[in-house]
Structures are given as structure tokens and as C-alpha cells.
Predict the 3D structure of the following.
Amino acid sequence: MLETILLGHSDWMLQLALFVVRVALGCCIIVHGLGKLGFHPTNPGGVKAFSGWLASMNIPYPLLNAWIATIIEFGGGILFTLGLGTRFVAFALMVNMFIAASTGHKGGGYLILNNPPGAEYAINLTVLFGMFVLTGPGALSLDYLLFAA
């Protein structure tokens, strides 16, 4: 009985878990993209301000990279939430968050509570997006609806 409690699961529970995590994670990254578009009080300057921040860290082609990150987060977040092109989008989001963790949060250590904030949050998002690269979106997704045999 303990084995069943600790290790047992049904397919519907797994599919529901993938759906809930995918939608929550997708909504989270959409908000990040909205911020970069200037629709959030944390970045009223939008892509131009984000580009300036990237330039201050000596990131090459800051405006181009700002737009790439914005499109990946906003557009990719929408696709990811819907479960459309999930593995490709999750890969782009995973790379995006890895870059954020290794550049934007560099020097802050691990904990997000550090000053400056550490890479904890970006690392955890990287890992979660990587999980969806490996698992796919699950049955409650547009990928499944459109491409399942």
C-alpha cells in the first residue's frame, strides 16, 4: 500500500499535472514578455529600456537581443501556454532563461533574495522549460489535438 501511495499515479494525473504546470509557467513568461513590451510598471520603457540594460552589461547587439528575448517570452509564452509547438518553444525559452541566469543575474549568487538578485528564479525556469523539451506538452494541448494520430 505504501508503494502505491508513494509511487502510484494514473495517466490522467500526469496529463493534468503537465497541463497545470505548462499553463502556470506560460502565463508567468507572458508577463515577463509584457514587461519587456512596456506593459508592466517594472519596465515602463519597454524594449528600448531593456536594450539599454543589455548594453550596460556589454551584451552585443542589445536592441536585436532585446527584441529576440521579448518575442521569445511574449509570443513563445502564448504558444507554450496553448501547448502549440511546445518542444521547440520550450527549447527557445530554456535557452532564453539560461542566458538570463548567466548574464542578467551574474554576480548575484544563487538566491533571488540576494542584493543584487541571484539567478535562482531564472535557473528554475530554465530547468522547468527543459523538462517540457523532454516530456512534451501532454495530452491537454493543441499539439496533441492537432498531431496525435
Q: What stands out?
A: Residues 11-36 form the longest helix (26 residues). The radius of gyration is 17 Å.
